[in-house]
Amino acid sequence: MISFDKARIHRVLTPEGLSLPFVVAPVGDRLSAFLFDTLLIIGATVLAGVLAALSTLIGMEEVGGSFAVLAGFLLWNFYFIYFEVHWGGVTFGKRRAELRVISRDGGPLTAEAIFARNIMRDLEFYIPVMVLLAPDEMLPEAPGWGRLLAAVWLLVFALMPLFNKDRLRCGDLVAGTMVVKAPAAVLLSDLTARGTGSPAERPARRSAAPQAALAPAPPPEEFPFTRQQLDIYGIHELQVLEDLLRRDDQGVLDGRILEEVCDKIKTKIGWPRERWNVPPRRFLDAFYRAQRALLEQKMLFGQRQERKRG
Amino acid sequence: MSEFVLKSAQFRREREAAWRELEELLARLEKGGMKSLTAAELHRLPVLYRSAISSLSVATAISLDKNLLDYLTALVGRAYMAVYGAKRRTGEAIAEFFRFRFPWVVRRYFVFVLAAYALMGLGVLAGYRMVRADPESYYSIVGDAEAQGRNPASSTPELRKILYSGGEAPLSFFATYLFTHNSRVGMLCFAVGFAAGVPVIYLLFTNGLTLGAMAALYQTRGLGAEFWAWVMPHGVTELSAICLCGAAGMVIGSSLVFPGRHTRLRNLALRGREVALLAVGAVTMFLVAGLIEGIFRQTVHDVAIRWSLAATTLVFWTWYFLFVGRGHERDLSR
């Protein structure tokens, strides 16, 4: 069945016995990477054609013609193979979309697997496209229903990634590979350790962050949360809050959102009215720290509270 | 202040330097390859990788810092690729391919290769006998595009001329065109194996059919031997390459239909990788065939030399596929 679940995890068992999680690349990313690569190929083919045309001006049309045919052949058949072998499963388009080809069983990605997965592209993409665009050339003597049948049959191959959860296309099936997300993750400073580590340990910020964000977090006495107040939210909410605070650090968050969230939390946990007017960021920092401390402690005792209660 | 430090934050402070070091090594490795690391750094890499793995398993147990978990997962993933996805030098891999792996994989799937030859041979025989029995059937076997004016209505001198004409196209262009066109057909043979192998059988058979029909046409005009002298110098290589691709397609088809001990998916992945080698080898054979057909055949018109080149290629490929790289079988099946 067609499925569009957000992030499917494929686990690879390393020789060390750890199961490494890889996020299966979403179809949209795959498509954008493929389109980007295809545009590059088309651009390079056109360039080769222009060069061949120029070669006739200096009377070397034979060399130019061979060059254009050979360049077209190499580009359309070996572009993916060359870069995936050379860069270990990455092409220009895949790098841009932060994708990478891996071997499904966790072994090394061999050159033959890369060949296998890319030779199948003909069947999956180029031939269906040609049948759809120029049916007369591809199937000269076939009756109308025959063409329809061929088109449907080929579409099944082309759309194969939509019909399985690991987003495998025919080439991935034949080669035992799959495409996963390979994000260039950046380690940001720990929100709870703010002000405790030396500034040199922190990564340089790209945008000028507000000074308030870098100030030391408030001491726990300032916001004495009770156990009941902290028992309400779960891991999911904690990590949403983390994302919010980090976006605030990068200066890409509307200040009002922070206020709204702050008010929502205060209402939910029954924060005393007489202490309602506190700076939102200061409150949220303290709440994040207290909440994470409790949830991590619970986790050590084997209780993972994923979601909020009530 | 310091009395309120989370276990996870403390854990991070102890390990972070090692992660940063690994990150820096990986960035250089991914950009510049093995050469960009010193010997000491290369030794350090697996150590740091293992430490990052243990960090990740500790972190998933004690930390809820999502940024940290994402970072470690990505870092370990990258390090894993660097440590286990180690690729050799391209030159070495190519040399190994031609000296061992290509002939090995041909021998490994010898039954399929023979079956491909048999199918094509059957096609040749059928086409030949059909046209000998009824010359008119030539038109239904050989399409206009393939015939290029060679049909039962052509005169004998016309047919003869094709065997010895230089052709209008410049030589290198013709050779390039032949190579690229044939390679595409060969790779297609591999790809359509995915449809349970049925189209492969059809492609192999019709290929033979066309050849047989043309041979019959030339035979009726007493040009049989000259026709084969025209086909075979490049044909031995080219037809073999087509048969290898066809064999690869049949292996893929049969691994889907008869999965054996493994699941279909796993079996397909296992076989698919191996027979991809057949397709790659076939592409290089098409290159050789294209050069022979595009340059040698257009310039050398002596029948005896044509025959001797055909015989030479036949001996060469037979020797290459049957004897080269023997004794390395165990190292190669991975």
List the helices and strands and how they pair.
The complex is a heterodimer of chains A (about 300) and B (about 325).
Chain A (H helix, E strand, L loop, with lengths): L8 E5 L5 E5 L3 H31 L3 H26 L5 H5 L2 E5 L7 H9 L1 H13 L1 H4 L5 H15 L11 H6 L1 E5 L29 H4 L12 H4 L4 H15 L5 H15 L10 H21 L10
Antiparallel strand pairs in A: 1-2, 3-4
Helix pairs in contact in A: 1-2, 2-4, 5-7, 11-13, 12-13
Chain B lengths: L6 H26 L6 H24 L3 H19 L5 H19 L1 H24 L4 H4 L2 H4 L8 H9 L6 H22 L5 H23 L3 H34 L6 H36 L3 H21 L5 H4 L2
Please state the structural category of chain A.
mainly alpha
β-strand percent of chain B reads under 5%
User: Biggest β-sheet of chain B: count, sense, barrel?
Assistant: none
| Helix percentage range of chain B | over 70%
Oligomer: heterodimer
Enumerate how many helices of chain A there are, as a single number: 13
- Structural class call of chain B reads mainly alpha
What is the end-to-end distance of chain B? 57 Å
Please trace the helix and strand order of chain B, writing H or E for each element.
HHHHHHHHHHHHHH
The biggest beta sheet of chain A is recorded as: 2 strands, antiparallel
Report the mean per-residue pLDDT of chain B as an integer: 83
Low-confidence stretches of chain B: none
Number of DSSP helical runs of chain B = 14
Residue share in helix of chain A: 40-55%
| Uncertain spans of chain A | 1-5, 195-213
Mean pLDDT of chain A: 79
Count of strand segments of chain B: 0
Radius of gyration of chain A (Å): 28 Å
User: In one word, what is the shape of chain A?
Assistant: elongated
Overall number of strands of chain A: 4
Distance between the termini of chain A: 34 Å
